[in-house]
Design a protein that fits this description.
Helix content is 67%, strand content 17%.
């Protein structure tokens, strides 16, 4: 079970890093003149933050257990 938890932590960290590094957004607004503004909605941004925090907590718990 510990190995599965470590894999989940690594996958979550990789996903969060990808979202942040590649500027992934879930909203699009028409800025006029054919331009669009992309941004993250509050729920999406909160989900990213929560996933990051949970992965960090789990990594610490696994380090203590191991």
């Amino acid at each position: 079970m510990e190995e599965q938890a470590q894999k989940l932590v690594k996958a979550t960290q990789a996903l969060v890093a990808y979202i942040q590094d590649n500027h992934v957004y879930d909203k699009l607004a028409d800025g006029g003149c054919g331009l669009y503004d992309t941004y993250r909605s509050d729920p999406f941004d909160e989900a990213i933050s929560n996933a990051k925090a949970a992965a960090e907590e789990m990594a610490k718990a696994l380090a203590k257990a191991g």
